[in-house]
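User: ABC transporter, Pseudomassariella vexata:
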Amino acid sequence: MTSMASESAITILCTCKQTRFNIGTPNYRELDIEGLNISITAGAKSGVKGKEKGKNASIEILNNAKLRLKAGQQYALVGRNGTGKSTLLKAISEKLIPGIPEETRVVLLQQTNIADANTDETGAEFPPPKPKESRGSTVLEEVIERATSRHKVQEEIRILTSAMNSTSTYGALRGARRVKHERLQKELFLKDKDARLRSGARGTQARKVLIAMEKEVAAFQATYEEKDEDISPDKLVQETSEAADMLAELELQVEPSKLAETESRGKRILTGLGFSETCMQKPISSLSGGWRMRTALSTALLQKTDILILDEPTNFLDILGIMWLQRHLMSVAEGPNPPTLILVSHDRDFMSLCTDLLIIKDKDLTYFHGDLAMYESSRAEKKVYLTKMKEAKDEQEKHIQQTIARNMKDGKFKDDQNKIRQAKSRQKKLDDRWGMEVSAKGGRFKLNRDLPGYHFTNRGEIEIPQDEKAISFALPRTTELRFPGALLALEKVSFRYPAVKKTTTPNPLVLQDINLSVHMGDRIGILGLNGGGKSTLIKLLVGEAKPTSGTLTTHPRLKSGYYSQNAVQSLQQMGVAEPYLTSLTLLTREVAGALNEGELRGLLASFGLPGRLASDVPIRKLSGGQLVRLEMTRLLWKCPHCLVLDESTTHLDYETVLAMREALHAWEGAVVVVSHDRWFMRGVVAGLVEDEYSDMSNCEDKVERRRMVYKLSKGQMTVLQGGAQEFEDSMEKRVRKLVNS
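Assistant: Predicted structure for ABC transporter:
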């Protein structure tokens, strides 16, 4: 079975096995697909001539994988950047994988183009008819509209009502035929897609259904175009009555009680994600990108679906929103007939809501029942166990080989056939029965039961799981300061944004009486909800804004590195402005001769941008995670004394977040962190190590550090004596109130 989808010059090709057996009524919340192959092909652009025309650069994502999702389970999809997570999610959501029934309702939330998708209630793209642009609609109206496709029902109601009220005798008939015609066109589109995605016996059946559908559409087309004078009186009466019944049925779908229930659910979801009543009534066109993302997330949560796919849903949420979403998804999982969830996230605490891991690695899919910590612990324990087993077996094999050699030598010297037979018997044992002594299930290995096939004559080797090449995140050593003192100090600092006009009333204070000092080696965490002033405080610290009152003091030899939460967007804009700008070119321009090309390449490689990726791939083509690495390289080549990180984990995969956390753990410089990732904050600021198998447990921080966590709320900053946990506990109380309200 084969399917393809094309987007611009990119084609996704999916193939899989099919069964010849009747599987009965499918469970749309389950997937059980064998032999799945997915690859993406970049076709030649139009206008390309000569030999280059028709050449395709194909990248294989999956090879003979098994995609098996159980109904109602919650899966965390994990894998490094570039392994194909987004491609797999797209293939599932657009039903490009032939084994996914067309009737399956799939909802996909992605970080890009969240407001541009025009999809029907099953998740399939359907071009005609395109709904009117809802520029003036409010946030609440937009969420309800997109979640329920209410406009389609209302549009049919409008057509039929207008037709029924027409002065023409044939008005009702014409209205009903128009609605039927549009429905048939949509059904034909879906049947055609289904036929193109299937092969073999099911493909033959799908094409038969398509041919029958095409005949039905062609037959109705003649009826649709029939002239008034050719319509018989009996047909007129019959179809006028059908139009009235159709209108009554549609009006039931939008009756006030049903809409009120949907609106109530929509309001609860929007409130949980941080929308106030006032914000819900704002025009959707007035929202920033982050709030549009929250709107799209609200829409996804409100829809009725079989498979719910969330790709980094926490990127624009504060801790309150993250904790509410985590509790909401857990409550949905406990309800009747919950959708199957596929979640991609870099936030380990948030991912803990998932019951299973779906791991994409080495062009294959593997599964693990449990969370990331359990998975890593299990892998580490298995590696230790197999290493010990292999060492013992190797020692035993060495001893047997020595015995065989000695017996053969003695047997030949003394012409002792018994010793020679004994040596040959032992050699046969080594050749045929040496290797694993336990089965895949952990029991004793039995030759006639556990060999993979009759043609195998010996056991498998003891294979020790090889760890992937570690994510590189090397922080440079800081330069000497020569004399002591605070790196940064804020004393009684207040800040307000300047008024647009001098005659207007001054803006309220964003920050008030802030006192903060940062010394070498300090770990400072700043927590708070969105809008509390965290980013403004950071800009004051790095000198991008000046205090309205109070003083900012900096060490005269201070070198600081500031990672802005908008860093990725800024690099993307830079890439659009200069389409051929590469990472190496950008860094060469910025260092202005301070480092040579070899040093720059080594620095980029240490942050995961090696070789041609740094010198040949334009910035505009880099992924979000690669852009984060580039930005960190731009900050760290100067060997700063202080790093100020504002949401630096966004766009990174969980392994890179782990590498950054471990690199910052024992770094000698100062770190100021603003982050909604609780696990990252605990490791960097509090220095906590939850996992005994983490590399952080082997590099104990012996430096006496000042570790402080501050809460910033309504412009005022207070010390949290209980650290980040105190803030989490307070947010948990607020989440419970939101859920119970």
